[in-house]
Structure prediction request, 749 residues.
Amino acid sequence: MKRFFIINLLVLMTIGWSGTNHLPNMKLKDLKNKRQDLSQYYSDGPILLNIWNLACEPCKKEMKELDKLNIKYGPQGFEVVSINIDNTRSMSKVKSYVNSQKYSFTVLSDPKAEFFRKMGGKVMPFVIIADTTGKIINRHVGYNPGDEKKLEEEIVHLLALINAAGDSTIANPVPVIEKPVIKSSK
Amino acid sequence: MITKIIVPLSIVLGSIFAQAEINFSYEMKYGDGKQVTGTASDNPDTLDYNYFENLLDINTNLGDDIYIYTQFEYSDLPVYGSTADGLNSFYLEYQNEKFFMKLGDQYELFGRGMSFYTLQNQNIDYDNSVKGLSFKYFMEKNIEISALIGKGDYFYRSNPSRRETDLQLNSSVLLGSVNYTHDWLGYFQYMNTKQQLLIDPALTGIFGNKSEIYYDLYERAEPGSDLLELWVAYELGEIVKIDTVNITNHNFNWNFYLGQFDIYVDKAWVYYDKIFGDEVFGSRFYTAVYTDFMGTGITYEYKNYNTPYLIKTISNFPIVYREGSSILASRNAHTFNFGNEIGHQVDFNRQLFDNINVLGNLSLSHRHQKNGMAELSIMDFLAMNEDSEIYDYYPFRQMYLEVNGWTFSERLYYKVGVDYFSELNFLNSGKNTYALTLPTHWVWKLSNGSSVTTYLEMQSKTEKQLNPPDFSLASEKNYTNHYFSFSYNHFGKWTLTGFYDREAVSDNVHQWPGFDFSYYLNSATQISLFYGSQKGGLICANGICAEQPGFEDGVKITFRSLF
Prediction:
């Protein structure tokens, strides 16, 4: 059985791994119980998806920073979409928490954690950055305060790349983006 | 043999069509130490505790239509559970605009899980999925029809503290569902579930384990009855017939808005056979109401579950109490009775001055009133006085209040809470438990992007044992617990964490010191090395919170990677 396991793994890695992945074709419900197509959120610009639940303290800290990024880069076509995976044990309390935080981004619900599983998620917080075609640029696991700087660098870099490629789908192209603008508080 | 064919075939097909996109998630856990078999400091017996767990999830997308999930496990032994060597989970999905189909392990949720919710939780070795086929057909934009057929063995524990499962039964299910969405009337769903459980007394332990089912069987095993004959045959070691339990579940749920109120109502009518008995009727009811009152988000939940002596297999419904994120408070878990419980929960969230969050929660629950039990009001359960009349209800109450926010130009994060847990459960667990916990959490952001994180928690807990005839105090244990952890995260590179957990009961003191070093190879690959001891429960370190089993004096290595 060990040999079977190893052979399968090698076969998979050899023929399957292309190094490129796209966001899956999925519809998730928003907090008003309406099904939303995931692709609508990245058709106009790059997207950052974060997966979280109420029991995850680092997730909540990260979401505060993601909200700032969404406000700052939203006019340039960038969008944060948050996917909550609280299941039946606690999902009734999600709306109350989200509304009290006054987040600027969309929150979708995935109580079966299907999207999380499809993206290979094991632990939270889990962040995915994808471009306007849904191609996954990077995945981040875990969050420590300060990590938002790296996220912002990646977003800025991605926006610059898209602009350089002359992507006309971005609402307000950014002429020059030199470096991240989240400042350390002093 | 099937796994040896399906997995390679799926991959070969994928490569043939040259559209395969595959991602991998690998997790390895190694541990070499000891585990405390007693639950408290006055019973510190230890056993050798070693594990080596390997999990590989492979997600394969063939175009936009086909998705294949495979999970391999090679574990000897895993952190929690039994030895595994091979394919753990597999399913294939096909979807288009009108149709969705899934073949293999069914992880599905209908409504709030009152009749069907199957999931896998590797951390607690839980998997109640069935193998089979499901489909959804989207008739119109607002009408969806679903069906599921499946079968599987359900493994469970006679005692949650057991490392490996010791009980099992076979379950088969046939489910049909229709849901409808209307702009004004909201979302409706009706489902009908027919389930069959095969109860083998030797595998389910119904004649041995002193559970509620055991006592019900004991009462029904009257002289001359078939049940008594069966029981005697079982005790004599003879082969006993397998009982078939038929369950029919009609479930209706409705989500709608009424002014400022978002209301969810879910009701299940359950007709089921008692084990080696006749059909009885039970029900499950759950409702949740959310509203925003002057900037305060308020959620009220109510549950009324009444299906006694029914073994829960494919359903997982709302618990209606708070599962906290505090390390010490989460160790006091309410003994939830899925078949016999009434409960209420009020939860609120409010933001003050844009950077202070206040949240509060009150939960209470108790069992149904039965013959001979005194009639009590909700005020009695709120008060939780130690009256003899209340014990038959196994009441539980928990209150929580928390303030958190950022200050000092958003450099300091603070969270201060207070949690008070009470459960009068000496008839079942042999003790009444009261615990007052003060969880705090602090983060200081350094200017270079690094950060310092501290958890500091204190808990005072009392466990009382009573004498059943007159409810006089038999013994009382007072615990004082402290938890402290200190982490330094060096921006994007590594984290060093020190843990200190201390429990004092009477003159006995037990300590769990430990250190963890985590190194981030990239944004999705991390390796951690732990040395020391760790009391079981929720542990937060390296920007991740996870349930961990108790561990004494040893080394743990954890490796996680996505590629």
Summary: The first helix of chain B runs from residue 2 to 17.
